[in-house]
Write a structure and sequence with these properties.
The chain is mainly β. It has helices at 3-6, 8-11, 14-17, 144-150; strands at residues 28-32, 35-36, 41-43, 53-56, 64-71, 85-94, 103-106, 118-126, 158-164. The strands form two sheets. A six-stranded mixed beta sheet has the order 3-9-8-5-6-7, with no helix packed on it. A three-stranded antiparallel beta sheet has the order 2-1-4, with no helix packed on it. It is globular.
Length: 180
């Protein structure tokens, strides 16, 4: 089994459904209160009610990044007619800092899935320069690939995702079958 086949972003179809294959080149840490988001972990809506603390790596403060948070499974994984749904966007984040040092252009909206288990994805892109990215005019049917192409962002430099379902929900995301 190749390394790419074991990549949690590939297994969960983040790469494929939302992103093209990419190589991580910058560290990205997302934390809700004291809990770090790790690929595939589960959070209930109450645990993600407030925007997370995000730390971006890199080595040059003159390099800027855009962070997007999307849900490709809105309103339900079996019928994602609103997906990708844009939950949050921060631009102009200097390397070695975090989202608090960037400019929030789409305010954080708490995920509140009502049907099924949703994948919530944080994607980090390197910008060509400061003030070169602008907010979209919509949240629903956002397209991360098209957005990246529009602003010449290229492939992501980092991504991480978590699963979220309604407070009373239980169970896990089913593994994709070879027939899907």
């Amino acid at each position: 089994m190749s390394r790419r086949e074991r990549d949690p972003l590939v297994v969960a179809r983040i790469v494929g459904d939302v992103l093209d294959p990419f190589n991580r080149s910058v560290s990205l840490t997302v934390r809700y209160n004291s809990r770090v988001v790790a690929n595939g972990c589960e959070f209930k809506p109450s645990a993600v009610a407030h925007q997370p603390r995000v730390v971006v790596g890199g080595d040059d403060l003159r390099t800027f990044y855009t962070l997007v948070m999307v849900d490709p499974d809105a309103p339900s994984p079996s019928s994602p007619t609103l997906g990708e749904y844009l939950h949050w966007m921060v631009i102009d984040i200097p390397a070695t800092t975090g989202s608090a040092f960037g400019r929030e252009v789409v305010c954080y909206e708490q995920p509140r899935p009502s049907f099924g288990i949703h994948r919530l994805i944080f994607v980090l892109f390197k910008q060509l320069g400061r003030e070169t990215v602008y907010a979209p005019t919509w949240r629903h049917n956002f397209n991360t690939r098209d957005f990246a192409a529009q602003y010449n962002l290229g492939l992501p430099v980092a991504a991480v995702y978590f699963n979220c379902q309604r407070e009373s929900g239980s169970g896990g995301r089913r593994a994709p079958s070879p027939l899907d």
